[in-house]
Amino acid sequence: MNQAPLSGSPLLELQALNCRFGGLRALDRVSLAVKSGEIFGLIGPNGAGKTTLFNLISGLTAASGGRILWRGQPISGLRPDRIARLGLARTFQNLRLFASMSALENVLVGLHGRGRTPLVAGLLGTAAFRRRQRELEAQAFNLLELLELAPLAQQSAGSLSYGNQRRLEIARALATGPRLLLLDEPAAGLNPAEKSELSALIRLLRQRFDLTVLIIEHHVPLMMDLCDRLAVLNFGERIALGTPELVRRDPAVIEAYLGGAVEEAS
Amino acid sequence: MPLDASLLVQMLLGALLGLSVYLPLRAGQLSLATPGFYAIGGYTAALLSTRFPALAGDGALYPLPSLLLELVLAALIAGALALAIGGPVLKLKGIYLAIATIALVEILRVLNLNLGFTGGATGLFAIPQPFEGPVGYLLLSLAVLALVCWLCARLERLRLGRAMEAIREDELAAACMGLDTARVKLLSFLFSALVAAVAGVISAHFLNTWNARQGSFDASITTLAFVVFGGSRTWLGPVVGGLALTALPELLRPVGDLRLVVYGLVILLGPILFPQGLITPELLRRLRWPFRQTSAEAPAP
Measuring CA to CA, how many Å separate A64 from each of A79, A83, B85, B241? Predict the structure, then answer.
């Protein structure tokens, strides 16, 4: 488990990543590197290509060019399940829980890769199988407890409140045992109190699970406070990269967010 | 006396076919290939027992060893075909998969209709009877159905069953959780083929004759109705649907010509009154049905 990359060598590296949908350039030669252990933020106006970037990393969308390296190995072109098993887990901007399954079962699906038992032992319900089941259920339950969902374990995921569904998505992603957690707008739709809890939660999870976090979020104050480094996307281009302080003062960022001079407009 | 042993056998076979449609549907895959695999099972049994005297009538291996041999062989053939075509076909989603599987059923039907060794349009006759009366078939189909139900009930509590359910809920999210969705879908398609083939073997002996009409598009729709009517979210649904909808046309015989109208009305009203089918997991939980306490009670810390 503890194959920490050499200091300085990034956990995840994107090299000149391109993504085109027909004539639309969703990502244009985006490069960035996420170091092990950091909380890396991705911000940018709507339509900047942030979620597209997540989809490329998690294997849902094929890149039109460029490379994605995970611990130095190219992973572009792998199926999403292979990428997940390498240790990259994600949540979704538009919640994608298994709605009619219970909260506990959702997390158990995340634990799928760790639950290997011979089919025959499972069919016969042998003692060893039942012990393994109980271990997995306890593990799932612990994750729910960590995200303060334990009392709701038996409720169907679809019936939970929005904030609880967001946290359940995080619990399910954590269950896959990731090294890198991709969070797609985890604060969307949360109230201010929940938002401030979220920062603390993400820091706690990073420490507890030795995680690296790549996070997309529109709530700029939260990101300035939470992230070690930020990258800013605008119309598919990376226009800034650095510490929150640096990014905040970057003229290109200010222009993208607040609008700038119009001298180039023809 | 409409509800006799013969009808009961047909009902049990209907329940098996319902389960065959249900298994891929549990993983979100609308496959209508069941009658195709059912036909393969039937032809395997019919050909073996009419062409090889050792397996029929007075042969030394008759009746149970030869029946077992037919079951195994039919399962192997249907399983091999399911694995071979499942890979490419299961890349299709939703209604496109349904159309592709209907095409499979039609291809098999036309082949069976025109090939020499399947007896062409007249089919195969005088398939030997391993049992003297319908009671033997009743016991056999009851045993097979009980076994398949038990396997399905266990499956719902296993990792594989949970993976199937997750794929049905959201295939993309399931893949992102590390589930090999293609493999899980292929397994559910394989299970479906095996159950249908076994039902075909029993049916061929029971009917005494087998022809291309046994695996037709009509049957695809009828077996799908079993699942839609009974409910597709727990194994008990297709069993109830298969039993009820097989019995209904016979039980309605006293109504005369109106019976098909009534039958149609029942199939129409079922989904309107019970959109999720008669049997749902929620209903079972309310009734404290013992076979599916979802997953787990909260474990002790």
Answer: 16, 18, 31, 49
Q: Which residue of A has its CA nearest to B233?
A: A100
B109-125 pLDDT per residue, tens: 999 999 988 888 889 98
Q: What is the pTM of this model?
A: 0.90
Residue A262 corresponds to which tokens in the numbers above?
């119009």
Q: φ, ψ for residue B41 (rounded to 5)?
A: -60, -45
Contact yes or no for A85 and B178 at CB 8 A: yes
Residue B267 lies in a domain: no
Number of folded domains in chain B?
1
Question: Would the CB atoms of A104 and B295 count as touching at under 8 Å?
Answer: yes
What distance in Å separates the CA atoms of residue A112 and residue B179, rounded to the nearest whole number?
A: 7
Contacts of A139 in chain B (CB under 8 A): none
The Cα–Cα gap between B253 and B235 comes to: 29
Predicted interface score ipTM higher than 0.85 = yes
As a CATH number, domain A9-87+178-258 is 3.40.50.300
pLDDT tens profile B65-75: 889 999 999 99
